[in-house]
Design a protein that fits this description.
Blueprint (H helix, E strand, L loop, with lengths): L2 H24 L2 H17 L8 H23 L13 E2 L9 H5 L4 H7 L4 H12 L4 H8 L3 H15 L9 H17 L2 H7 E10 L9 E2 L1 H15 L3 E6 L2 E6 L8 E8 L2 E8 L2 H5 L7
Parallel strand pairs: 2-7
Antiparallel strand pairs: 1-4, 2-3, 4-5, 5-6, 6-7
Length: 291
């Protein structure tokens, strides 16, 4: 085995973690894959013998790459007039067994990723790398060209903003019961039943694409009316799926690409947020499983 082959094998052991770091930083599956690939290229060009802790080195490098992407994207996002939602991470429900719990533990829900999008690039990096992946403030300061104290302050500011994001119930079976009840109510057109499973200040966000404005719908009654106005056309296409580790739905005609993915944020047994992703670019960039 050559040194390069050995290094490539070592890199592959870290790839899932790096992919998770990059996705949580960027909210984009395709951009995360590009960031991880760039990380490998930098490792391949480096003096690997001088690297003392490969895991920390790789996390630091992929964090720096993502920070550059976020800074560039921040200026580009000014032209994004539609509602932005992240590219969803999709799994079949049967994949949520014990062997997947470690992977799901690092998966941030759609609602939290929406809040992270309001942070500055440096704040987002500090929060994700420290609070989610345990990187030291010294390492984060090196990435952001700040002191460890300044990096700690970045994470603290981010944490205060993140507190506004709803925290999903951890029981996936309980989540699924709520989503199943949502399906029953939507299929039957039962407004009262739908209202009973929506939190009073629930929100429906719809990402159609960068050029189409779809304002969020806020309030249980308003969300229920919107759902029942559109459900008859699409509800028969829904099938259960995991969206960012939580119970969700995919709307998929037989033998054709998915039309949409709907993520749910269930808190205290009621739906706090519904995130509907229709943007074809985000769906095609995601590895959608076959039924």
């Amino acid at each position: 085995m050559t040194d390069r082959t050995w290094l490539a094998d070592r890199f592959e052991t870290f790839r899932p973690r790096l992919q998770s770091v990059a996705y949580n930083m960027l909210g984009s599956v395709s951009e995360a894959e590009d960031a991880v690939q760039e990380c490998w290229l930098r490792l391949d060009r480096s003096d690997s013998d001088a690297i003392q802790n490969l895991g920390t080195w790789l996390t630091t490098v992929v964090g720096r790459i993502c920070l550059d992407v976020l800074r560039t994207r921040k200026s580009q996002r000014e032209d994004y007039v539609g509602t932005w939602l992240p590219e969803p991470l999709i799994q079949e429900p049967r994949e949520a067994g014990p062997e997947h719990q470690a992977e799901l533990a690092d998966t941030l829900g759609l609602a939290l990723l929406v809040v992270l999008e309001t942070l500055s690039p440096a704040e987002r990096l500090a929060f994700v790398l420290h609070d989610i992946f345990g990187l030291s403030f010294e390492d984060i300061g090196e990435i952001t060209d700040r002191s460890a104290i300044a990096a700690r302050q970045l994470a603290s500011r981010a944490r205060r903003r993140v507190r506004t994001a709803p925290r999903p119930d951890t029981d996936l079976t309980a989540q699924r019961r709520v989503v199943d009840a949502f399906l029953v109510a939507a299929r039957s057109g039962d407004f009262d039943a739908l209202l009973s499973i929506l939190a009073p200040h629930s929100v429906l966000r719809v990402d159609i694409g960068p050029d189409m404005v779809q304002a969020p719908v806020v309030g249980a009654a308003e969300v229920a009316h919107r759902i029942l106005a559109t459900a008859p056309r699409f509800i028969s296409l829904a099938r259960p799926i995991l969206v960012n580790g939580c119970a969700g739905l995919m709307f998929e005609p037989d033998g054709r690409p998915a039309l949409a993915v709907l993520g749910f944020t269930v808190v205290g047994g009621r739906i706090e947020a519904l995130d509907l992703i229709i943007d074809a670019a985000k769906l095609s960039a995601t590895d959608l499983p076959a039924p």
